Amino acid sequence: MIVADNESTDRTAEIARSRGCEVVPVEKRAIAAVRNGGARAARGDVVAFVDADIQIHPETFNEIDRVLASGRVIGGTTGIRMERSSIGLTCTCALLSVMGALIRLALRTMPALHVDTGVVFCLRRDFERVGGYNEERFFIEDVQLLVDLIRLGRSRGQRLAAWMNAEAVFSTRKFDVYGDWHYFTAPLRLPWSALYRASSMNGFVRRYWYEAR
Questions:
Q1: Residues 13 and 26 in one domain
Q2: Is residue 129 over pLDDT 90?
Q3: I want to staple 158 with a disulfide (CB 3.0 to 4.6 A). Which of 26, 146, 153, 154 is the partner?
């Protein structure tokens, strides 16, 4: 288990080390750089990425082994379920599904391809072949990686796995702070930002993902 520590100011590194994790300091304040920093320290043939506030399913790694063993899958995501439910969260998930389709169109992928979230995984060699996460992006870097894997897998007749039998529990801490409807009242800045140039929404993105406590 590798913890990429992005200049944390609490006991993150101390707690991680006390539990046997390898702690990798990453100074660049970009989620993509943090993920890549952890990947460089990894030594396995398979790499899997998860946010610090997500709870993984006990069968996560068994499921990853199972789907990769077929050879028909280049990588994928485990899928998620929210740690709590509300009408606002349900509507937000529906909105993000629509936005996900638009992102795939903007990134020139087939609109029928499904891109999900949760624990993201693939073979190390494929991760390196697509160049890892794009460190020029401050957001949707995870979507870009999946799109890159889709394109690579398509040339081999492989697909992207999604919605496995090991859904991760997705933290609603942002919704607890900003409200269950904040994706709509922002107004729509967060989901719609995916269609803008990466630089056009950096101020909002930095406040939302990088500066908030």
A1: yes
A2: yes
A3: 153
SS3 for 172?
coil
Residues 95 and 6 both lie in one domain: no
Asked if 61 and 164 sit in the same domain, the reply is yes
Structure-block tokens of residue 60: 């996560």
Contacts of 63 (CB under 8 A, 6+ apart): 57, 78, 164, 165, 166
Mind giving me the DSSP string for 26-57?
A: --S--HHHHHHHHHHH--SSEEEE--TTPBPP
Residues spanned by the domain of 180: 47-211
Confidence at residue 128, expressed as pLDDT on a 0 to 100 scale: 97
Other beta carbons within 10 angstroms of residue 12's beta carbon come to 15
Total-model pTM: 0.82
